[in-house]
DNA sequence: TTGTACGCGTTATCAA
DNA sequence: TTGATAACGCGTACAA
């Protein structure tokens, strides 16, 4: 007895083929390469598709072809403007090539990365994109077993799987420290949010404070819990002023924190940069516009997304088997603005 | 001649079955309901899965079951904090239920919505989420033909497909206008970004300016091109001051624009709220913290995402066939802060 | 150029 | 409870 399923009265390729009076394989061929079928049947197929409102079943296609036009992307958080900019750029580029972006966010929770990667793998993705290059053993195993190129973004270091596009956060921290030393910083603090789980913010902090230490300056580090936000920055400044009233320079792990510092300083009548120098990280849309404009590190978030997408598309569409791992330093730029102005001798005690 | 393909040396369910010395059906059953197999073979299957590192192929599963655990989401832009907050909330909730979020952004380009929906449909998604309730004919046709619940978010109006979670932007605009009238606004302007394509910003503008008109006040509308940003706001304020030097109150379609207005006012020594009142929309993280704190409309972005996800999961998991369309007014709240303070008579000319 | 037949890795059905 | 087997809808090698 025949077991009829086919509950889904979906329009299939066979339906199109029947209506166009050709075989299903001709329809399949037409869909992938319209010029490959004879000019006589092409219009018939085209019309049948339109009349029936045929939508190809990607699932079946992917299963047959053993490859899915989907790319899994793991970011820590979408609330973070850095990552949403990168994701937006990637999505746009993937879309151009007909690839679908699968999105997952860890919210900095340990173990979530492995879960998300596992989920993505069950979709047989064409490629995987993860954030950072530090992963737990489970994630590493999963990524290694993936028969798809793996891109790591926003950070350099460790051994790359296939592609790594990012920059050294440690150096970014160093660059800010160097600048602050040049302008005569003496009493220095660093504000970072959740630096135990945000390893990149922690790296920037390390780069900054070690550089300072080499110059004989001990940095007061304020590691606040929760998301980076202006409120975080404002509270942190209040704390710092309590413990270190003569602070003259503050670096922040994120521009939104720095913005909060600027607001709090303004409320307290603390002049920036005359009495307090402030630097951030991210070069967010407000950083150029705020008062005073904020010295910061520009990480090229969009460029990272674009590079990854392009490089992956290239690898996927021209599968020169066994490609070498590739590392791309997307770099960063220290953008010096009015919030860090030279500390005049006259203003020092 | 047998055609051996099976180039993909992927670990399949059969491999697991062979190793556990059971049938593939039992493995499948175990995966969906571990308690349904006898306690004798369950551990064998479990071990085989772990040893072989088996990852189920969702594609095959979805094809067979004729349902995919994927939900397509279309937003205008990820750069917009509103939508990224909503998407983040949805993704988290979907993930909890084992559903994958497919993401697409239109970047406010006409026609992109239909393209994205079409792409999603070919994935046979469990549900679709789109932004707003105004869609071109092509999109409407596609959505109607979808055998999946369709949720529209961030806006109310039109006839809902299945679910609509949002609020009236027109009323949000009215609420701001009402407040500004109460505090004695006389010379009024509205700044919006790209209001031809951002229909919701346009609605807020309409609600605002019509309310003002009813009170006999003609609103100067500044519709700037490009994304909403602080720079946009700063430039717009400069423009407004040129054409309308005695402006006393400005409403903005977005808090980031309002932030730019505050910065520009500060640079010009224009005291807010004493000389100029400013209101925004969005209640972004900085809005409470900036100087002065910003009066704004809070749209409950996270709540919208959560409501949609929960409602969809419910519909999907308890398919009481032919559910009624449902409209949920997520509401908004006018948050009055220092940036809009009563205009004292003594300060008027 | 077009058609035939098989296989992709699962789920669902039904018999044992 | 377990296992054999037929779909699911399409890609593709190969024959016509």
TrEMBL record, chains A, B:
PROSITE patterns in the record: HTH_LACI_1, HTH_LACI_2
Alphabetized UniProt keyword annotations: DNA-binding, Transcription, Transcription regulation
GO terms of molecular function: DNA-binding transcription factor activity; transcription cis-regulatory region binding
Pfam families membership: LacI, Peripla_BP_1
SUPFAM superfamilies: lambda repressor-like DNA-binding domains, Periplasmic binding protein-like I
Key word DNA-binding present: yes
Gene3D superfamilies: 3.40.50.2300, lambda repressor-like DNA-binding domains (1.10.260.40)
Domain HTH lacI-type: 11-65
InterPro entries associated with the record: HTH_LacI, Lambda_DNA-bd_dom_sf, Peripla_BP/Lac1_sug-bd_dom, Peripla_BP_I
CDD domains: HTH_LacI, PBP1_GntR
Source species, domain of life: Bacteria
Tagged with keyword DNA-binding: yes
Residues making up the signal peptide according to the UniProt record: none
Name under which the protein is recorded: LacI family DNA-binding transcriptional regulator
Taxonomic classification: Bacteria, Pseudomonadati, Pseudomonadota, Betaproteobacteria, Burkholderiales
């Amino acid at each position: 007895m025949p077991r009829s399923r086919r509950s889904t009265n979906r329009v299939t390729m066979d339906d199109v083929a029947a209506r166009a009076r050709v075989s299903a394989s001709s329809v399949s061929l037409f869909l992938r390469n319209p010029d490959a079928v004879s000019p006589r049947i092409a219009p018939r197929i085209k019309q049948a598709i339109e009349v029936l409102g045929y939508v190809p079943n990607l699932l079946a296609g992917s299963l047959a072809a053993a490859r899915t036009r989907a790319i899994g992307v793991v970011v820590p958080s979408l609330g973070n403007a850095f990552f949403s900019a990168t994701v937006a750029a990637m999505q746009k580029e993937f879309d151009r090539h007909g690839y679908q972006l699968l999105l997952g966010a860890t919210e900095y929770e340990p173990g979530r990365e492995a879960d998300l990667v596992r989920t993505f793998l069950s979709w047989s993705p064409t490629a995987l994109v993860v954030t950072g290059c530090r992963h737990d053993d489970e994630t590493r195993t999963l990524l290694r077993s993936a028969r798809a190129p793996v891109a790591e973004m926003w950070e350099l270091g460790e051994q790359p799987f296939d592609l790594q596009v990012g920059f050294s956060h440690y150096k970014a921290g160093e660059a800010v420290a160097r600048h602050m030393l040049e302008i005569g910083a003496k009493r220095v603090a660093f504000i970072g949010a959740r630096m135990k789980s945000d390893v990149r913010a922690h790296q920037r902090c390390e780069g900054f404070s070690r550089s300072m230490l080499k110059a004989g300056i001990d940095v007061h580090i304020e590691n606040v819990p929760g998301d980076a936000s202006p409120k975080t920055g404002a509270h942190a400044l209040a704390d710092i002023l309590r413990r270190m009233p003569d602070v003259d320079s503050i670096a922040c792990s994120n521009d939104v924190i720095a913005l909060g510092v600027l607001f709090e300083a303004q409320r307290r009548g603390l002049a920036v940069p005359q009495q307090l120098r402030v630097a951030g990280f991210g070069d967010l849309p407000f950083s150029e516009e705020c008062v005073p404009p904020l010295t910061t590190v520009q990480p090229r978030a969009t460029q990272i997304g674009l590079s990854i997408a392009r490089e992956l598309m290239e690898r996927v569409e021209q599968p020169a088997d066994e490609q070498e791992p590739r590392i791309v330093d997307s770099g960063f730029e220290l953008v010096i603005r009015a919030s860090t102005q030279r500390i005049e001798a006259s203003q020092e005690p």
